[in-house]
UniProtKB/TrEMBL annotation:
The gene is ARHGAP10. Keywords: Cell membrane, Coiled coil, Cytoplasm, Endosome, GTPase activation, Membrane, SH3 domain. Residues 598-607 have a biased composition (Basic residues). It holds the Pfam family SH3_9. Residues 696-709 have a biased composition (Low complexity). One of its GO terms (cellular component) is cytosol. InterPro entries: AH/BAR_dom_sf (IPR027267), BAR_dom (IPR004148), GRAF2_SH3 (IPR035485), GRAF_fam (IPR047234), PH-like_dom_sf (IPR011993), PH_domain (IPR001849), PH_GRAF (IPR047225), Rho_GTPase_activation_prot (IPR008936). SMART domains: PH (SM00233), RhoGAP (SM00324), SH3 (SM00326). Residues 580-607, 620-681, 690-709 are annotated as: Disordered. The lineage of its organism: Eukaryota, Metazoa, Chordata, Craniata, Vertebrata. GO terms for molecular function: GTPase activator activity. SUPFAM superfamilies: BAR/IMD domain-like, GTPase activation domain, GAP, PH domain-like, SH3-domain. Residues 727-785 form the SH3 domain. This is Rho GTPase-activating protein 10. Its main location: membrane.
Amino acid sequence: MGLQPLEFSDCYLDSPWFRERIRAHEAELEKTNKFIKELLKDGKNLIAATKSLSVAQRKFAHSLRDFKFEFIGDAETDDERCIDASLREFSNFLRNLEEQREIMALSVTETLIKPLEKFRKEKLGAVKEEKKKFDKETEKNYSLLDKHLNLSAKKKDAHLQEADIQVEQNRKHFYELSLEYVCKLQEIQERKKFEFVEPMLSFFQGMFTFYHQGHELAKDFNHYKMELQINIQNTRNRFEGTRSEVEDLMNKIRQNPKEHKRASQFAVEGYLYVQEKRPAPFGSSWVKHYCMYRKAAKKFTMIPFEHRSGGKIGDGEVFSLKECTKRHTDSIDRRFCFDVEAADRPGIPLTMQAFSEEERKLWMEALGGKEALLPSLNRANLRREGGAQLDKIGFTILRKCIRAVETRGINDQGLYRVVGVSSKVQRLLSVLMDAKTCNEVDLENSLDWEVKTITSALKQYLRSLPEPLMTYDLHGEFIIPAKCGSPESRVNAIHFLVHRLPEKNKEMLDILVKHLTNVSNHAKQNLMTVANLGVVFGPTLMRPQEETVAAIMDLKFQNIVVEILIENHEKIFRTMPDATLPEPVSMSTSPPNAPPRQSKRQGQRNKRPVAVYNLCLELEDADNPSPPKEDTPTGSLDSLSSHSPTPAILSSSPGPEKNHLLTDGGDLVDWASNHPSQARPPMVQWLNPQSPTSLSANTAAVPSSPTSPSFSFSPSAAVADKPTECIVSRKARAVYPCEAEHSSELSFEIGAVFEDVQTSREPGWLEGTLNGKRGLIPQNYVKLL
């Protein structure tokens, strides 16, 4: 049962039950006051906790934004770039969410805390003041009444009448105050229902608004989330393929490391202990050096390096080798030793110690020692022999398998990913590769061979070719467009390269890719999307001549090349490429759907082995300013190349004495240590130290051979309009959106029109005016009008 109403007529009776009802109302108001007080305290704690959560969320978002993934190799796939950018997207999402949370926290103060505090202080406080007055008047009234009733009847009438009037006036004042107090008590009991609940409603409305904003942010984020899931899945699929290849290579090298040594510009290299002689009291010491020897130039380089002292590279030494002599154990109390003598220090040999007798023989062989071994066969560079050939039987195998797959299993889930039994695959392949039995095999109608056996046999045939279908020679050139440039420039470059393939290779590739296009068209049934087919056929159609970890890291780009072939089959195989070379591509790491921007601040990414080669060549240059001419065999190169994601813009002048490449930071780095199988860096022009390090965008490419043109690096890929001369007072339209990274740059959306566009001093950039503001514009983001 609720509180009993307070009747105004009871104020005049002032009965005990009336007083009980008043006390019940007062107790209820006191309970309400304490509740609001506690609620305000909890509300302030909630705001403080919300602010603490917001600070923690913002710190988390800041950490996400600042972290960047490093990648292995010289470029990333579009999927990997999206994954890299995802942390910034997550950070932006949290930042936007926290902005809404701050608005909610502010609204809690304004809509809940302040109104409740005002109600408690003004309304409940006013009732408390009325209670004090009522209690005071009650005390006064009944005290005066007691005193009046104690007056003696013998007092004078005038005195008694005056006392009666005073008591009556006091009782009237008391009744009026009692009426007002009772009215206040009942009013506040009714008022608290809306005065208290209305701020609560506003508070929850603010919370609903916050959650609604979060829901809207999540809806906006959903499209990006779905795309990111696809990027992650594609990257995971490529990772699985790359991991198996890396493990295979690791096992091969583990079984026979000598047969898988990488080609190098040095005849021999490795660690040796060098004897350093000291004055007589101190004897001699042996210091570990990393030594390298160039046979053609007879240059011996040794650099002190101790793994246990933090791995710091010491000051190196380069000298011309005169002779090498084996040391016997009767002349020195150490094994595996030999002496080398420098041409400029005759009669002062250096004593060196190898790690084993076998390594000493290898060093002496390379250095021209007396006990050199006969040259060993480098099996790693031999071509893999196989029975499969690009002949009439090969084309028959391909067509038979494709017809059978399209007739019997085009909708089979996991087509080409589900592997057949190895023994059955080998048996089918042997039957198909036999000229006597090839035509007798009916794969379309016979149930003797499962579809997964046929698909595995087809892949095995392509892997068994003496060289991959897309050839060793063009492998590097196919990879480069997949690493950079706009989608259109990639297609154009691969279109051009496909038509440089030998005729039989191109014909077989055409047949296969047409079939894979058909397979991808049934992806809803067989689940073999273009990306999945790229994972399966990337390593099958392309592989480097030399198996290295660096080459395996390019496996994901092989998959992208195959994806481009499938998605653009009609254009690539049914039309001829342009007579001119496709637009140059650059090794940039721009986000997908936008061409790379020429960065004005490239970070250094040098690795220790590169530093070793740099030091070696710098020391050698200092020792011999005019290096001798030497015939560099294929697979060895005295040259340097950039490890920066964006290569240098190079001069087309004739090559200098040293084949150097210059990075944006001005550093010389080594090409041959990372691309030993190439006689010169592909698609790169040689740097002339006397020429400027920037070119106009229309610089022609330098062909690597009369019949094998190569592309030149440029600060931009897929430039919408390449000028043939200096640009002055032109108009341009944006073909890609751009967000400025510096105050000197302009931000713009697609379709923005720039006035008074002209060539900038910054390579790859233009100057222009947009909406009255002048600044730099990435040249590859606009089209000249």
